[in-house]
Amino acid sequence: LKTILGELSSILLTGQNVKPTAFLNAGFKFQYTKLSQALENILEDPPLMKSFTVYQWVPKKKEEIFDFFSHEKNLEKITPPSLNFNIENKSTDEIQDGTIINYKLKLHGIPMKWKSHIREFKVNDRFIDEQLKGPYKKWIHLHTFTDYKGGTLIKDYVRYQLPMGHLGYLFAKSYVKRDLKKIFNYRKEIIKSLFFPTMGGD
């Protein structure tokens, strides 16, 4: 390679340390600072990563629905009381791309802290909350809001991974599935009560 390519052979033999200096000087920040994080995001789910999807249609414009979900205090309203879910603080006055939110809750009576990072925040369209600290090894929750049949189709797509690898799944998989189903069923009922018009009865 050295004979054929000369100085260019160093690109193949030793690699390059290239930095986008102009972008960095302008304050640009990479969403993923490590190659492994970027690859994990674009490739299939890693081993033991589970996922589930929940859909719900409501007869309201997506601007109204998105506004509801972009206020962190409303998350307390749609979370089962048994979790004792409370917002402690957030890093910005309004939720936006990059906001960090700190919560406290109880899982089966055990007090826990949860820290979320908001990313890909697109007004009236979507956002992701990703656990930075909490009971899961990974928790990535995508919220999307789509115009559909005169209302809004809410989609929750969650990818999660339990701690302690296979041992964690052996002991906790069934409990986690049951808990998540209970949480999202409760949430759907509350959203229905808030956004569906009340019907007069006899």
SSE order and pairing:
Blueprint (H helix, E strand, L loop, with lengths): L1 H4 L3 H5 L7 H5 L9 H8 L7 E9 L3 H8 L3 H5 L8 E5 L9 E8 L2 E13 L3 E8 L4 E11 L2 E11 L3 H31 L7
Antiparallel strand pairs: 1-7, 2-3, 3-4, 4-5, 5-6, 6-7
Task: Please provide a written account of the structure.
By secondary structure, this protein is an alpha+beta fold. The chain is 33% helix and 32% strand. It has a seven-stranded antiparallel sheet, covered by helices on one side. Strand 4 (110-122) and strand 5 form a beta hairpin. The N and C termini lie far apart (87 Å). The model has no long low-confidence stretch (mean pLDDT 87).
Structure characteristics:
202 residues; alpha+beta; 7 strands; 32% strand
Rg, Å, rounded: 22 Å
Q: What's the helix-strand series?
A: HHHHEHHEEEEEEH
Q: How many E strands?
A: 7
| CA-based shape | globular
Name the average pLDDT.
87
Summarize the structure.
The protein has 202 residues and is α+β, with helices and mostly antiparallel strands. The chain has helices at residues 2-5, 9-13, 21-25, 35-42, 62-69, 73-77, 165-195; strands spanning 50-58, 86-90, 100-107, 110-122, 126-133, 138-148, 151-161. Helices cover 33% and strands 32% of the residues.
